[in-house]
Specification:
Blueprint lengths: L1 H7 L6 H29 L16 E2 L4 H5 L3 H10 L2 E7 L4 H9 L7 E6 L9 E2 L5 H14 L6 E5 L4 E2 L1 H7 L10 E3 L1 E4 L2 E4 L5 E4 H11 L17 H11 L4 E4 L8 E2 L3 H11 L4 H5 L6 E2 L4 H13 L23
Parallel strand pairs: 1-11, 2-3, 2-5, 3-4, 7-11, 12-13
Antiparallel strand pairs: 5-10, 6-13, 7-10, 8-9
Helix pairs in contact: 5-12, 6-8
Protein name: C1GALT1-specific chaperone 1
Membrane topology: Single-pass type II membrane protein
GO molecular function: glycoprotein-N-acetylgalactosamine 3-beta-galactosyltransferase activity
Length: about 325
């Protein structure tokens, strides 16, 4: 106002006043640029766009029904059970030693090949020493190693040691699926436009999905080893992003009634919730009979689960299962 008044009076502003006006103008410009940058970051999303030409038809993946199984001959079923073999990639650290030991002594014995990938060497347990602390880099290295040492196995299962897994149910889910097709299965969550499989409840990948993923690892622009954003994405989202660029999409594993097969909670927590929410039908409302994983379990709970799933029997009771998944050769599993 003072400058405008002086101009009206025919006075020329002093150098100090010109300097103040110039500083004010510069501040306005810099402020505008700063606001623009903030707005760009505000609209930036770490997820990738979903191109219009992409179409996903298999979001809900269910196992074969009993009726479908009955249509298969004994020879077909026998051949299928021999073909469905799983390489288990189990990500551990020395801090998770108790769970590591529990996993080694329980469900991992049912994998056709189980390999532990550790952040550093351990004198107590055998593992592939990755000498790497970053979880995403470790996961990438583990997937590449598994692919190179698969020895003909066509399905890959990635898990943390806190997740109890019923491998036979996993095999049943993918029994008639073709591993030369890109499957990426588990408990699906959504973040913006990105659908991803939740890590703690286990991740299933077909041979083709892993093959495409490893090729994508070489593309630093779309699948960087180190993220470029201001914040760090979780490894499960980084994995999903790389897979999506590879044309592989997340599929939610469900049973014939639509119940989830990959649980991100433990049995005790799920039952406790069901007792509160569905007291008249606790078990039916809780979990699927063909559940594949339960996560967030203590090492002692995993031992109890092993007893309940594989050892406890009602004498004389026959479930009349159509097929049998034989244990790995020379395995000492239950």
């Amino acid at each position: 106002m003072e400058i405008a008044y002086q101009l009206q009076q025919g006075r020329v502003p002093s150098d100090n006043m010109l300097s103040e006006g110039s500083s004010f103008f510069k501040g306005m410009v810099l402020g505008g640029i700063f606001c623009l940058v903030l707005s760009l970051f505000g609209t930036f999303s770490p997820t990738i766009p979903h191109p219009a030409e992409e179409h996903h038809d298999h979001h809900h993946l269910k196992p074969h029904s009993k009726e479908d199984m009955q249509k298969l001959s004994k020879t077909q079923m026998s051949d299928l059970t021999k073909l469905v073999r799983v390489y288990c990639v189990i990500m551990v650290t020395p801090k998770s030693l108790l769970h590591w030991v529990a996993t080694n002594n329980t469900w991992s014995k049912h994998c056709d090949k189980s390999v532990f990938y550790s952040s550093e060497s351990s004198k107590v347990m055998e593992a592939v020493d990755q000498q790497e602390k970053d979880e995403w880099i470790r996961l990438r290295k583990a997937i590449v190693h598994a692919y190179e040492h698969a020895d003909g196995l066509r399905w890959f299962y990635i898990a943390r040691p806190t997740t109890f897994t019923i491998i036979e149910n996993l095999k049943y889910l993918v029994l008639v699926k073709d591993p030369s097709q890109p499957f990426y299965i588990g408990h699906v969550e959504k973040s913006g436009e990105l659908e991803y499989v939740e890590y703690s409840s286990g991740i299933v990948l077909s041979y083709e999905a892993v093959k495409r993923l490893i090729t994508m690892f070489d593309d630093e622009d779309r699948c960087p080893e180190q993220g470029y954003s201001l914040w760090k994405l979780s490894e499960e989202k980084q994995l999903a992003t790389c897979l999506k660029f590879s044309g592989v999409f997340a599929e939610n594993g469900e049973d014939g009634h639509g119940k989830g097969l990959f649980n991100k909670k433990g049995v005790n927590e799920l039952i406790s919730e069901s007792i509160t929410q569905n007291p008249d039908d606790v078990v039916e409302a809780c979990c699927s009979d063909m559940a594949i994983t339960y996560s967030g379990m203590s090492h002692s709970q995993m031992q109890v689960m092993m007893y309940g799933v594989y050892r406890l029997r009602a004498y004389g009771h026959n479930f009349h299962d159509s097929l049998m998944f034989l244990p790995p050769k020379n395995s000492d599993n239950d």
